[in-house]
Amino acid sequence: MPDFDKNFLEAKGLPVNYKDWELIRTDRIPVKKDFSGTLRIISTDSEWLQGVNIKVNGKMTILGCEGQRFILWADDVLKDGSVHFSGTSKDSLLFVWNACDIRGNRSANSWQNGAAMIVEVNGNTRRYRCNDFAPDEDFDDLIFEVTIDE
Q1: How does DSSP classify residue 107?
Q2: How many domains does the structure of the chain reveal?
Q3: Averaged over 132-144, what is the pLDDT?
Q4: For position 79, which CATH number holds?
Q5: In 3, 26, 41, 100, which residue has its Cα 20 to 30 A from 112's Cα atom?
Q6: What CA–CA distances, in Å, run from 28 to 3, 31, 79, 94?
Q7: Sign of CA pseudo-dihedral 22, 25, 31, 35
Q8: What 3-state class would DSSP assign to 10?
Q9: Residue 1's pLDDT is what?
């Protein structure tokens, strides 16, 4: 089984190469000072509830709520398919990372054990293939997209 913790520790949080993939734990998406976009959950395949953390150094609005950081659980987002967001960024970056709930109480576990993401960029859409808490290498536990409006 892969030991992504060790790889990311040695890389000091930078992307790591594993087999033919570049893996990250957090994506930093360039955005305009005032931005908007859509997050869409495509699929999940895990024993645990999957989620997406989204954060900005500023403020954003999702589903009528304003804040700096949100976690969107897949079972909530899948009801509608996607969630629109908008905000203002102080440093022109939007941070995105996956999470899973291994306790069953909607507490987020991130950046541990098997957690890692493969990012595929196509124009202004980024597709994430995620591995959850389990130290395996299937990268299908959560698949989602973030599209930033241009």
Answers
A1: -
A2: 1
A3: 87
A4: 2.60.120
A5: 41
A6: 23, 9, 27, 6
A7: positive
A8: helix
A9: 66
